[in-house]
Specification:
With 340 residues, the protein is α/β, with parallel strands linked by helices. It has one domain: TIM Barrel (Alpha-Beta Barrel). It contains ten helices and twelve strands. It has an eight-stranded parallel beta barrel with strand order 1-2-3-4-5-6-8-12, surrounded by seven helices. Helix 2 runs parallel beside helix 3, helix 3 packs across helix 4 and helix 5 runs parallel beside helix 6. The relative contact order is 0.15.
Protein backbone atom coordinates (compact mmCIF):
# COMPACT_ATOMS: atom_id res chain seq x y z
CA UNK A 1 0.00 0.00 0.00
CA UNK A 2 1.18 3.51 -0.81
CA UNK A 3 -0.42 6.86 -0.07
CA UNK A 4 -1.04 8.93 -3.20
CA UNK A 5 -1.57 12.68 -3.10
CA UNK A 6 -1.26 15.66 -5.38
CA UNK A 7 1.13 18.59 -5.17
CA UNK A 8 0.03 21.94 -6.61
CA UNK A 9 2.20 25.01 -7.06
CA UNK A 10 -0.99 27.06 -7.39
CA UNK A 11 0.15 29.06 -10.41
CA UNK A 12 -2.18 31.75 -11.72
CA UNK A 13 -1.96 34.01 -14.73
CA UNK A 14 -4.31 36.59 -16.29
CA UNK A 15 -3.66 34.96 -19.68
CA UNK A 16 -6.83 33.87 -21.55
CA UNK A 17 -5.19 30.44 -21.93
CA UNK A 18 -5.12 29.93 -18.15
CA UNK A 19 -7.99 28.36 -16.24
CA UNK A 20 -6.64 30.04 -13.10
CA UNK A 21 -6.50 33.78 -13.80
CA UNK A 22 -6.29 35.33 -10.34
CA UNK A 23 -5.10 34.67 -6.81
CA UNK A 24 -8.73 34.08 -5.82
CA UNK A 25 -9.02 31.45 -8.57
CA UNK A 26 -5.87 29.71 -7.35
CA UNK A 27 -7.06 29.57 -3.75
CA UNK A 28 -10.67 28.58 -4.39
CA UNK A 29 -9.75 26.01 -7.03
CA UNK A 30 -7.16 24.53 -4.64
CA UNK A 31 -9.92 23.93 -2.09
CA UNK A 32 -12.17 22.45 -4.79
CA UNK A 33 -9.36 20.16 -5.96
CA UNK A 34 -8.78 18.89 -2.41
CA UNK A 35 -12.49 18.03 -2.22
CA UNK A 36 -12.41 16.36 -5.65
CA UNK A 37 -9.22 14.42 -4.85
CA UNK A 38 -10.84 13.04 -1.71
CA UNK A 39 -13.86 11.96 -3.75
CA UNK A 40 -11.75 10.04 -6.30
CA UNK A 41 -9.83 8.18 -3.59
CA UNK A 42 -6.59 10.14 -3.24
CA UNK A 43 -4.92 10.36 0.16
CA UNK A 44 -3.36 13.82 0.19
CA UNK A 45 -3.66 17.42 -1.01
CA UNK A 46 -0.34 19.25 -0.79
CA UNK A 47 0.56 22.80 -1.77
CA UNK A 48 3.83 24.57 -2.56
CA UNK A 49 4.57 27.95 -0.95
CA UNK A 50 6.33 30.75 -2.87
CA UNK A 51 6.59 34.43 -2.01
CA UNK A 52 6.50 37.46 -4.35
CA UNK A 53 5.06 35.18 -7.05
CA UNK A 54 1.77 34.54 -8.83
CA UNK A 55 1.45 31.30 -6.90
CA UNK A 56 0.17 30.09 -3.55
CA UNK A 57 1.87 31.87 -0.65
CA UNK A 58 0.54 31.90 2.95
CA UNK A 59 -0.62 28.30 3.42
CA UNK A 60 -2.60 28.24 6.66
CA UNK A 61 -5.82 29.96 5.52
CA UNK A 62 -5.90 27.56 2.57
CA UNK A 63 -5.21 24.48 4.69
CA UNK A 64 -7.86 25.50 7.24
CA UNK A 65 -10.46 26.11 4.53
CA UNK A 66 -9.68 22.81 2.81
CA UNK A 67 -9.80 21.09 6.19
CA UNK A 68 -13.27 22.46 6.81
CA UNK A 69 -14.52 21.21 3.41
CA UNK A 70 -13.02 17.68 3.58
CA UNK A 71 -13.14 14.84 6.09
CA UNK A 72 -10.49 12.24 5.27
CA UNK A 73 -7.74 13.48 2.99
CA UNK A 74 -4.38 14.63 4.37
CA UNK A 75 -3.65 18.33 3.88
CA UNK A 76 -0.09 19.49 3.62
CA UNK A 77 2.68 21.64 2.22
CA UNK A 78 5.71 20.79 0.15
CA UNK A 79 7.30 23.02 1.25
CA UNK A 80 7.09 26.11 3.50
CA UNK A 81 10.30 28.14 3.19
CA UNK A 82 11.52 28.57 6.76
CA UNK A 83 13.70 31.56 5.83
CA UNK A 84 10.47 33.60 5.79
CA UNK A 85 8.80 32.26 8.94
CA UNK A 86 8.44 33.54 12.48
CA UNK A 87 8.36 30.10 14.16
CA UNK A 88 6.19 31.22 17.10
CA UNK A 89 3.49 32.77 14.94
CA UNK A 90 3.72 29.76 12.64
CA UNK A 91 3.16 27.39 15.56
CA UNK A 92 -0.08 29.21 16.41
CA UNK A 93 -1.29 29.18 12.80
CA UNK A 94 -0.36 25.52 12.35
CA UNK A 95 -2.10 24.51 15.58
CA UNK A 96 -5.30 26.33 14.59
CA UNK A 97 -5.36 24.90 11.06
CA UNK A 98 -4.69 21.39 12.33
CA UNK A 99 -7.53 21.59 14.85
CA UNK A 100 -9.92 22.81 12.14
CA UNK A 101 -8.82 19.91 9.93
CA UNK A 102 -9.23 17.37 12.72
CA UNK A 103 -5.55 16.50 12.96
CA UNK A 104 -4.92 15.89 9.24
CA UNK A 105 -2.12 18.40 8.55
CA UNK A 106 1.17 17.11 7.12
CA UNK A 107 3.49 20.12 7.03
CA UNK A 108 6.53 20.02 4.79
CA UNK A 109 9.10 22.68 5.68
CA UNK A 110 12.55 23.40 4.32
CA UNK A 111 15.21 25.92 3.48
CA UNK A 112 13.28 26.59 0.28
CA UNK A 113 14.38 27.25 -3.27
CA UNK A 114 15.47 30.38 -5.18
CA UNK A 115 12.70 32.97 -4.92
CA UNK A 116 11.44 35.78 -7.15
CA UNK A 117 13.38 38.54 -5.38
CA UNK A 118 16.86 38.84 -3.94
CA UNK A 119 17.00 37.88 -0.24
CA UNK A 120 13.23 38.15 0.02
CA UNK A 121 13.20 37.08 3.68
CA UNK A 122 14.75 40.44 4.55
CA UNK A 123 11.50 42.15 3.59
CA UNK A 124 9.84 39.90 6.16
CA UNK A 125 12.19 41.22 8.84
CA UNK A 126 14.35 38.09 9.01
CA UNK A 127 18.13 38.35 8.70
CA UNK A 128 20.75 35.64 9.33
CA UNK A 129 22.88 36.16 12.40
CA UNK A 130 26.54 37.03 12.10
CA UNK A 131 28.35 34.16 10.44
CA UNK A 132 25.14 32.39 9.39
CA UNK A 133 23.84 31.68 5.92
CA UNK A 134 20.19 31.86 4.93
CA UNK A 135 20.15 28.03 5.04
CA UNK A 136 21.44 28.15 8.64
CA UNK A 137 18.67 30.60 9.51
CA UNK A 138 16.05 28.33 7.95
CA UNK A 139 17.23 25.29 9.90
CA UNK A 140 17.37 27.36 13.10
CA UNK A 141 13.79 28.57 12.60
CA UNK A 142 12.75 24.97 11.88
CA UNK A 143 14.32 23.73 15.11
CA UNK A 144 12.51 26.41 17.15
CA UNK A 145 9.20 25.59 15.45
CA UNK A 146 9.69 21.85 15.98
CA UNK A 147 10.51 22.37 19.66
CA UNK A 148 7.41 24.55 20.18
CA UNK A 149 5.23 21.71 18.91
CA UNK A 150 6.13 19.67 22.00
CA UNK A 151 3.61 21.87 23.80
CA UNK A 152 5.84 22.59 26.78
CA UNK A 153 5.41 25.85 28.68
CA UNK A 154 8.22 28.37 28.30
CA UNK A 155 6.76 31.87 28.85
CA UNK A 156 6.59 33.54 32.27
CA UNK A 157 2.93 34.36 33.06
CA UNK A 158 1.79 37.83 34.02
CA UNK A 159 1.05 37.91 37.79
CA UNK A 160 -2.01 40.06 37.06
CA UNK A 161 -3.44 38.61 33.86
CA UNK A 162 -6.65 39.70 32.15
CA UNK A 163 -7.89 36.10 32.32
CA UNK A 164 -6.92 33.24 34.68
CA UNK A 165 -3.89 31.18 33.63
CA UNK A 166 -3.20 27.49 34.15
CA UNK A 167 -0.35 26.85 36.60
CA UNK A 168 3.27 27.07 35.50
CA UNK A 169 4.93 28.46 32.40
CA UNK A 170 2.66 29.09 29.42
CA UNK A 171 2.81 27.53 25.97
CA UNK A 172 1.48 28.87 22.71
CA UNK A 173 -2.19 28.25 22.03
CA UNK A 174 -4.00 26.67 20.35
CA UNK A 175 -1.96 23.51 20.73
CA UNK A 176 -2.72 20.49 18.53
CA UNK A 177 -1.61 17.17 19.98
CA UNK A 178 0.23 14.97 17.51
CA UNK A 179 1.11 17.66 14.96
CA UNK A 180 4.81 17.33 15.79
CA UNK A 181 4.81 13.80 14.34
CA UNK A 182 3.43 15.22 11.09
CA UNK A 183 6.26 17.64 10.27
CA UNK A 184 8.38 16.82 7.21
CA UNK A 185 11.69 18.24 6.05
CA UNK A 186 12.19 18.82 2.33
CA UNK A 187 15.78 17.69 1.81
CA UNK A 188 17.78 18.52 -1.32
CA UNK A 189 20.93 16.75 -0.05
CA UNK A 190 21.81 13.58 1.81
CA UNK A 191 23.25 15.63 4.70
CA UNK A 192 20.03 17.55 5.38
CA UNK A 193 18.03 14.31 5.16
CA UNK A 194 20.24 12.83 7.87
CA UNK A 195 19.89 16.03 9.94
CA UNK A 196 16.09 15.76 9.70
CA UNK A 197 16.19 12.11 10.74
CA UNK A 198 18.19 12.91 13.85
CA UNK A 199 15.63 15.56 14.87
CA UNK A 200 12.69 13.24 14.22
CA UNK A 201 11.09 14.85 11.16
CA UNK A 202 9.60 12.92 8.26
CA UNK A 203 11.29 13.26 4.85
CA UNK A 204 10.12 14.87 1.61
CA UNK A 205 12.18 14.54 -1.55
CA UNK A 206 11.13 16.57 -4.58
CA UNK A 207 11.30 16.26 -8.36
CA UNK A 208 14.78 17.75 -8.10
CA UNK A 209 17.79 17.21 -5.86
CA UNK A 210 21.25 18.67 -5.69
CA UNK A 211 23.45 16.38 -7.76
CA UNK A 212 25.85 14.50 -5.49
CA UNK A 213 26.86 11.50 -7.63
CA UNK A 214 25.89 12.16 -11.26
CA UNK A 215 23.37 9.29 -11.15
CA UNK A 216 19.70 9.53 -12.18
CA UNK A 217 17.38 11.30 -9.75
CA UNK A 218 15.57 8.18 -8.61
CA UNK A 219 18.87 6.43 -7.79
CA UNK A 220 20.20 9.40 -5.81
CA UNK A 221 16.89 9.77 -4.00
CA UNK A 222 16.78 6.09 -3.09
CA UNK A 223 20.25 6.38 -1.56
CA UNK A 224 19.15 9.52 0.28
CA UNK A 225 16.10 7.74 1.68
CA UNK A 226 18.17 4.75 2.83
CA UNK A 227 20.67 7.06 4.54
CA UNK A 228 17.76 8.88 6.19
CA UNK A 229 16.21 5.67 7.49
CA UNK A 230 19.54 4.48 8.87
CA UNK A 231 20.05 7.81 10.68
CA UNK A 232 16.49 7.57 12.04
CA UNK A 233 17.20 4.11 13.40
CA UNK A 234 20.47 5.22 14.98
CA UNK A 235 18.70 8.16 16.66
CA UNK A 236 16.45 5.72 18.49
CA UNK A 237 13.08 7.25 17.59
CA UNK A 238 10.18 5.04 18.62
CA UNK A 239 7.79 5.60 15.69
CA UNK A 240 8.17 4.73 12.02
CA UNK A 241 9.10 7.72 9.83
CA UNK A 242 7.25 8.66 6.67
CA UNK A 243 8.92 9.44 3.36
CA UNK A 244 7.44 11.06 0.26
CA UNK A 245 8.73 11.65 -3.24
CA UNK A 246 7.19 13.90 -5.90
CA UNK A 247 6.78 12.96 -9.55
CA UNK A 248 5.16 14.28 -12.73
CA UNK A 249 3.09 11.30 -13.93
CA UNK A 250 0.29 11.35 -16.50
CA UNK A 251 -1.74 8.34 -17.59
CA UNK A 252 -2.96 8.70 -21.16
CA UNK A 253 -6.50 7.36 -21.06
CA UNK A 254 -8.41 9.75 -23.35
CA UNK A 255 -7.93 12.17 -26.24
CA UNK A 256 -7.47 15.17 -23.97
CA UNK A 257 -4.62 13.43 -22.13
CA UNK A 258 -2.98 12.64 -25.44
CA UNK A 259 -3.39 16.22 -26.65
CA UNK A 260 -1.73 17.62 -23.52
CA UNK A 261 0.90 14.96 -22.78
CA UNK A 262 0.88 12.53 -25.70
CA UNK A 263 4.46 13.18 -26.73
CA UNK A 264 5.47 10.53 -24.23
CA UNK A 265 7.02 12.61 -21.46
CA UNK A 266 10.77 12.75 -20.98
CA UNK A 267 12.75 9.54 -20.99
CA UNK A 268 15.72 10.94 -19.07
CA UNK A 269 16.48 13.31 -16.22
CA UNK A 270 18.03 16.74 -16.75
CA UNK A 271 21.00 18.32 -15.02
CA UNK A 272 21.37 22.06 -14.51
CA UNK A 273 21.92 24.89 -12.05
CA UNK A 274 19.16 26.44 -9.93
CA UNK A 275 21.74 28.36 -7.91
CA UNK A 276 25.32 29.35 -8.73
CA UNK A 277 27.72 26.45 -8.17
CA UNK A 278 24.87 24.12 -7.13
CA UNK A 279 24.26 21.54 -9.82
CA UNK A 280 20.89 19.83 -9.57
CA UNK A 281 19.25 16.82 -11.17
CA UNK A 282 15.67 17.30 -12.36
CA UNK A 283 13.40 14.27 -12.63
CA UNK A 284 11.85 13.09 -15.86
CA UNK A 285 8.13 13.34 -16.69
CA UNK A 286 6.25 10.08 -17.04
CA UNK A 287 3.45 10.13 -19.63
CA UNK A 288 2.16 6.94 -21.25
CA UNK A 289 -0.69 4.46 -21.44
CA UNK A 290 -1.38 2.92 -18.01
CA UNK A 291 0.20 -0.46 -18.76
CA UNK A 292 3.38 1.24 -20.00
CA UNK A 293 3.43 3.55 -16.98
CA UNK A 294 3.21 0.60 -14.64
CA UNK A 295 6.33 -0.94 -16.12
CA UNK A 296 8.20 2.37 -16.14
CA UNK A 297 7.36 3.12 -12.52
CA UNK A 298 8.47 -0.33 -11.39
CA UNK A 299 12.01 0.80 -12.19
CA UNK A 300 11.87 3.97 -10.06
CA UNK A 301 13.92 3.07 -6.99
CA UNK A 302 12.92 6.12 -4.95
CA UNK A 303 9.19 5.57 -5.38
CA UNK A 304 9.74 1.99 -4.21
CA UNK A 305 11.53 3.27 -1.08
CA UNK A 306 8.86 5.86 -0.21
CA UNK A 307 5.50 5.31 1.46
CA UNK A 308 3.90 8.41 -0.11
CA UNK A 309 3.83 9.59 -3.73
CA UNK A 310 2.90 13.19 -4.56
CA UNK A 311 1.72 13.81 -8.12
CA UNK A 312 2.57 17.29 -9.40
CA UNK A 313 -0.49 18.67 -11.18
CA UNK A 314 -0.89 21.35 -13.88
CA UNK A 315 -3.31 23.42 -11.81
CA UNK A 316 -3.98 25.99 -14.56
CA UNK A 317 -5.79 23.29 -16.57
CA UNK A 318 -8.66 23.44 -14.09
CA UNK A 319 -10.14 21.42 -11.26
CA UNK A 320 -12.04 18.88 -13.37
CA UNK A 321 -9.05 17.97 -15.51
CA UNK A 322 -6.69 17.70 -12.55
CA UNK A 323 -9.17 15.53 -10.67
CA UNK A 324 -9.17 13.29 -13.76
CA UNK A 325 -5.34 13.18 -13.75
CA UNK A 326 -5.33 12.06 -10.12
CA UNK A 327 -8.15 9.55 -10.57
CA UNK A 328 -6.41 7.99 -13.59
CA UNK A 329 -3.37 7.16 -11.47
CA UNK A 330 -5.43 5.92 -8.52
CA UNK A 331 -7.67 3.68 -10.66
CA UNK A 332 -5.56 2.63 -13.64
CA UNK A 333 -1.96 2.61 -12.42
CA UNK A 334 -1.82 2.15 -8.63
CA UNK A 335 -3.53 -1.29 -8.57
CA UNK A 336 -1.04 -2.69 -11.09
CA UNK A 337 1.83 -1.68 -8.80
CA UNK A 338 0.27 -3.05 -5.63
CA UNK A 339 -0.38 0.44 -4.20
CA UNK A 340 -4.10 -0.24 -3.91
Amino acid sequence: MKKIGFLSFGHWSPSPQSGTRSAADALLQSIDLAVAAEEVGADGAYFRVHHFARQLASPFPLLAAAGAKTSRIELGTAVIDMRYENPLYMAEDAGAADLIAGGRLQLGISRGSPEQVIDGWRYFGLVPQEGQSDADMARGNAEVFFELLKGKGFAQPNPSPMFPNPPGLLRLEPFSEGLRDRIWWGAATDATAIWAAKLGMNLQSSTLKFDETGEPLHVQQAKQIRAYREAWKEAGHTREPRVSVSRSIFALVNDMDRAYFGRGGESTDHFGYIEPEKRAVFGRTYAAEPDVLIEQLRGDEAIAEADTLLLTVPNQLGVDYNAHVIESIVKHVAPGLGWR
